[in-house]
Design goal:
Blueprint: E1 9-10, E2 27-32, H1 36-46, E3 52-58, H2 61-70, E4 75-79, H3 87-97, E5 102-108, H4 111-122, E6 127-131, H5 135-140, H6 142-163, E7 215-220, H7 224-235, E8 242-246, H8 250-264, E9 267-270, E10 281-284, E11 290-295, E12 301-306, H9 318-329, E13 333-337, H10 346-354, E14 358-362, H11 372-378, E15 382-386, H12 388-401
Parallel strand pairs: 2-3, 2-4, 4-5, 5-6, 7-8, 7-13, 8-10, 9-10, 13-14, 14-15
Antiparallel strand pairs: 1-3, 11-12
Helix pairs in contact: 2-3, 4-8, 7-8, 7-12, 9-10
Amino acid sequence: MPLNTASGGSAAGRSATRGPAGDGDPFRVMVVDDSAVVRGLVTRFLQEDPDLTVAASCGNGQRAVEELKRAPVDVIVLDIEMPVMDGLTALPKLLDVQPGVQIVMASTLTRSNADVSLKAMAAGAADYLAKPSSTGGMHGTGTYQQELRSKVKALAQQHRRTRGGKSLGPVRPPAQGSAKPAAAPARPTGAAAVAAPAGDGEIKLRPMPTVRPEALAIGSSTGGPQALFKFLSGLGRIAQPVLITQHMPATFTALLADHIGRQTKLTCSEGRDGDPLVGGHVYIAPGGKHMTVEKDAGGKVRIKLDDGPPENFCKPSVDPMLRSLSRVYGGRLLTVILTGMGSDGLKGSEVTVKAGAHVLAQDEATSVVWGMPRAVAKAGLCSAVLPLEELATAVQKLIVRNAA
């Protein structure tokens, strides 16, 4: 529990020296936590970035709803355990007041809080942030401060873009008989532009697969849990094993597997070292380990958990999973890259595509953060860039159409 609590709320702000694109209009953040000490620290950490300003600071969910009615914000950092109104209760009320506002659930890393955070993400929260268990821990770890700023800023950027209607839409493969693949219009520049690892310009699509995939790989990060729930529910049971790397700590990944199993009715579990891959089974990379695969002496494909260093600052990381799957399945692998910050999955997708495999990506308009899918799309690795609601259907068609 917090060391120091307060139930009130007050506006807090500052003048930024520059805005998100030099326009003098910083991203607006609301901080909601019943500890005045925590609110003060989070505010200070956020405002070390001149593109961020804390526009409101509230001690409980009810006060946050009242503050949001007075002035909109781009992102809300929302604690779970608070008096008067907790975070899970406040979540739908905040979304009712300002539909589309990006909400980050903040909690200490316990199984109970992880479970609540996953429920919150299924109910519309964009992401979660694991808080250190003490204010001393918040002071002492630069990792927490960096993660706080990067998540809030990425979500705020995406909120501004989608609010302005300037997000990049789907890029579908050409209709049968079409002479050339579809291409996306150039993205806007200036205040609406979002920093990302690939260059701007058209998205050039690769041909769609003509062979039946023997395994399905999925990479996701920010916004991933809710995207996974929707994608897997639409996909239903398939004959291939499904391997997922979602950026999450260990406490979360076991619960994510439980939530996916309950919501989709699919058999889902954390991957365990030595597990044989079974068709129709969904495997989640456990937090703190890279999930890879290898063939045993008898030719059976098994999971191999790798305790190597983080890749792309992530562990688990999508790239080692894709590299290992490419070695086993070659061109008979289908990869789907869902919403997420950064570019994890880009290098692994380059390996799989070189081996003859195919990649589909979520489009910008339906992504919480269009970082990972943007990276593979802009690199020319994708056969289609589709809205989330179309991805499951596209995968099903590829499996059925190419089954012969």
